[in-house]
């Protein structure tokens, strides 16, 4: 039986550290604040927003909600993003995506200052991930992959990590973050020829192609640690499932994340930590030590 890489204890450890840092800021007169910008009423967005707000409350981080109707104009979206960027009391901005099809995401992303981009969606934040400069913030789910593996003492230095997925949300930044931890990384995707032959080589396999049940037992080596970054509502049962066929893969690998109960909790904990880090950076030099 594989070791279950559950997200709850990882999130609890991160939140305990984050709450201490937030309390230290509050004692110095700075309350970390996250602004959540949502367009429309997508159930997935609302669910993630509620989870983020709960995590913020646990850590003593304030939240400002800005909700626009699904039929809002590009100008209204831009104005909202720009206004949040200018508020000194707002330290982090989370813009829910994907946006409605009538809206352009690229200019909206550019309207968010990189210093407040706590979900790693701006070019400045991503540049920091890919150059290793430490500037900005990594995408939360990609960072959560590393945090989870480190918590469970999965060796990263010298390990071969295979990341299946090339999005800028998980796949590509996760590959860079794992490389920064000393792993040798193979980055592939759903169109890679003989993908299973690639993923079977990994001591660590990150499944992030965004396709429900895409990966089975044949994709993983017997001793692999598997991180499932997918989350989908099964149209037949309504239950949440990942990119990995868990029941099939779990008996055949050394460690695996469940879905639900895996990476999601860590992702929101990373988000809150990023907000506190942004507040610390903003406060540096403006308040007495």
Architecture overview:
The chain is of the alpha/beta class and 289 residues long. It folds into 2 domains: 30-113, Rossmann fold; 141-263, NAD(P)-binding Rossmann-like Domain (Rossmann fold, 3-Layer(aba) Sandwich). Helices cover 41% and strands 15% of the residues. The protein has 10 helices and 11 strands. The chain has helices at residues 7-27, 43-59, 74-86, 105-110, 123-131, 140-151, 171-180, 195-199, 246-249, 263-283, and strands at residues 3-4, 33-39, 62-68, 92-95, 160-164, 184-188, 204-207, 225-228, 232-233, 240-241, 255-256. The chain has a 6-stranded parallel beta sheet with strand order 1-11-8-7-5-6. A 3-stranded parallel beta sheet has the order 3-2-4, with helices on both faces. The protein has a two-stranded antiparallel ribbon with strand order 9-10. Strand 9 (232-233) and strand 10 form a beta hairpin. It starts with a strand and ends in a 6-residue tail after the last helix. The model has no long low-confidence stretch (mean pLDDT 95).
Structural class: alpha/beta
| β-strand amount | 15-25%
Within CATH, the superfamily of the largest domain carries the name NAD(P)-binding Rossmann-like Domain
Rg, please? 19 Å
H and E order:
EHEHEHEHHHEHEHEEEEHEH
CATH-defined fold name of the largest domain = Rossmann fold
**Going across the major beta sheet, what is the strand order?**
1-11-8-7-5-6
CATH class of the largest domain: Alpha Beta
Helix content: 40-55%
Q: What is the level-2 CATH architecture name of the largest domain? A: 3-Layer(aba) Sandwich
Largest sheet: 6 strands, parallel
**Total number of domains:** 2
Kindly report the average pLDDT value. Answer: 95
Give start-end ranges of low-pLDDT stretches: none
Whole-Å distance between the termini? 50 Å
Helical run tally: 10
- Tell the overall outline: globular
Count all strands and give the number.
11
């Amino acid at each position: 039986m594989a070791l279950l890489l559950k997200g709850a204890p990882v999130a609890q450890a991160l939140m305990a550290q984050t709450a201490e840092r937030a309390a230290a800021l509050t004692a110095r007169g700075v309350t970390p604040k996250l602004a959540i910008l949502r367009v429309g009423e997508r159930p997935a967005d609302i669910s993630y927003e509620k989870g983020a707000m709960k995590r913020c409350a646990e850590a003593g981080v304030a939240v400002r909600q800005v909700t626009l109707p699904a039929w809002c104009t590009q100008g209204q979206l831009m104005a909202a993003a720009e206004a949040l960027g200018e508020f000194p009391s707002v330290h982090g901005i989370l813009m829910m995506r994907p946006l409605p099809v009538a809206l352009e995401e690229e200019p909206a992303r550019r309207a968010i200052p990189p210093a407040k981009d706590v979900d790693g969606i701006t070019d400045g934040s991503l540049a920091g991930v890919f150059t290793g400069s430490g500037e900005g913030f990594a995408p939360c789910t990609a960072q959560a992959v590393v945090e989870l593996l480190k918590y469970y003492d999965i060796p990263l230095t010298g390990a071969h990590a295979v990341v299946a997925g090339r999005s800028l949300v998980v796949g590509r930044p996760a590959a860079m973050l794992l490389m920064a931890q000393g792993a040798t990384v193979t980055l592939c995707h759903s169109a890679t020829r003989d993908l299973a032959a690639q993923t079977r080589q990994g001591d660590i396999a990150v499944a992030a192609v965004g396709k429900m049940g895409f990966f089975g037992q044949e994709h993983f080596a017997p001793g692999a640690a598997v991180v499932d970054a997918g989350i989908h509502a099964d149209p037949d049962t309504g239950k949440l499932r990942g990119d990995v066929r868990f029941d099939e893969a779990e008996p055949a690998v050394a460690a695996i994340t469940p879905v639900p109960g895996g990476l999601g909790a860590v992702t929101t904990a990373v988000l809150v930590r990023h907000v506190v880090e942004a507040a610390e950076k903003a406060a540096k030099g403006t308040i007495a030590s």
